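Minutes, project check-in

Agenda point 3 was the complex the collaborators sent over. CS summarized: two entities, 676 residues total, and the question is how they sit relative to each other. Sequences were read into the notes so everyone works from the same version.
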Amino acid sequence: MCFVHLSFSMFGCPCSLWDWSCCCASREGLQMANINCVTFPIPNVTPDQAEQQLLKPNEWSYCDYFWTDKKDPQGTTSVAGFEVLLQKQLKGKQMQKEMAEFIRERIKIEEEYAKNLSKLSQSPLAAQEEGTLGEAWAQLKRSCHDEAEVHLKFSNKLQCEVEKPLLTFRDNFKKELKKYDHHIIDLRKQLASRFAGVEKARKALADRQKDLEVKTQQLDIKHMNKHEEDIKKARRKSTQAGDDLMHNVDLYNRAQSKWFEEMVTTSLELERLEVERVEMIRQNLRQYTTLRHETDMFNQSTVEPVDQLLQSVDPARDRELWVREHKTGELRPVDMDI
Amino acid sequence: MCFVHLSFSMFGCPCSLWDWSCCCASREGLQMANINCVTFPIPNVTPDQAEQQLLKPNEWSYCDYFWTDKKDPQGTTSVAGFEVLLQKQLKGKQMQKEMAEFIRERIKIEEEYAKNLSKLSQSPLAAQEEGTLGEAWAQLKRSCHDEAEVHLKFSNKLQCEVEKPLLTFRDNFKKELKKYDHHIIDLRKQLASRFAGVEKARKALADRQKDLEVKTQQLDIKHMNKHEEDIKKARRKSTQAGDDLMHNVDLYNRAQSKWFEEMVTTSLELERLEVERVEMIRQNLRQYTTLRHETDMFNQSTVEPVDQLLQSVDPARDRELWVREHKTGELRPVDMDI
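CS then shared the predicted structure for the full assembly.
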């Protein structure tokens, strides 16, 4: 991490580059602004200003793009950039859940289809067809049951190999996210608290400086000694207030650093988790397509025995079988003779 | 057609070889029996008897096996062999109809499945997933609609190419069969009528012969001339009755021939129709299996675009797209400076 150290702090006057109330001033060239207690450089104000490089160039990394709070379009509140990242994670969890629901719906459809085909296969329609044709027909009916089995197997595998993984991936994720959220929020609160401390010390210094100035400009011929004493005291207090301000600024900067580090670490973690989520989903959806391929192939094979028996259909053979069973008599009539 | 001509007619005594009342006698070796007015040879009674050869050997042809009436197991009625053949045809028509019904049921199942898949494809679940993963997911949903189309196409083709032909094949068949039935029945009725004629003539001849015998054995010394006259008259009447019997037997034999010819012709026609029916059904069921094959192949192809998009899923690209849209600010914080 590389901070660009700037030499002036700014406070008091609204800057046209920003929407928020901020502080800016120009002393030695570089300018800063505080937005919601975070200290930012103001870009492009001076030509000498060293530009910030992305921490992870060309990666569109979370750690590079979510520093600023996002202003709520409706009102005056704003949302931390980190919140945007968190919402993205929660949405991802929701997507995972909805995809699992979709698979559940598919499972139900397959089960219904299988049930209907199975029932149809038990139909007595044309059961009285006999011989080789009857066998082919019986196999055709049986193949409907085989198809039902294929679809039932498909739905079972969908449940085990697609729905379940989607449902159970990162069960406890929301809790994890809450932890991250609370931690970052705490660090911002500390930062705000330190910022308040800086403001307080800054005001105290201003007061002390004003007091010193007033006292220095006074002339008191009558009480010269006491006056010198007063000026020395005022000067001492002013110096103390200055030290106090520097101390508060230091505390502030440490708090900001801490928040900064945590932001980078956590946003990179969220980034990694998102990559994992996308890969997990891709895997499961590939499993879906694999099962679909499989299913269509198994389904094709249910037709083969039917084809074979249809090939063997033999009307002559069927006639023989039927005639053997149903013939009434072979003796042919003859002429009557006297 | 080759009739075995036999030299004796038989009548009067029940024959142990048959269930029905019949006539049999043994004069010169070959024997016949009438069953329901049809004249049959009695098989295996004399070693010299020429055996009947099948009209169409090795073919199990209808024309060889349905000459005898079938006795109804419950009662004393019997059913003509031809009726058995006709029932077979009617049953075949029924089978055709039931197969079409089965296909109709399959069509309904496919339509239901298609409807469900299509509805599912329009689900908004996980529609908020973006980037390359979002595209793959959207395609997965779309593929469910593609599958629905495949199954709808399957059901439409089932209707046109399998159900309809099965339903419409030989629409008017029952009427055709009725015609055959009535024609054969009529010929049997005529045969029965001629048979009655023979019986009547036979009885008349017996009466005339008895009368002649009686008259011949009488001695009438008183009225010798008249008596001679009476005997001549009786002899003439006897001869006439004999001619009459032969004439009736001839009419009978012609009626039997006519029925015989029609039996052969019609049973061969029914045989041909049955072969056609079996072939027609085989064809349609083959079309069913062809459509099944097709459907599974088309179905497989619906998964391919999904596979391709899953291949292209790129978490880094998705991060870029999302960060570009949702970033809050790139400027990193800097130390506050006084």
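Noted in discussion: The radius of gyration of chain B is 42 Å.
Follow-up: revisit at the next meeting once the mutant set is ready.
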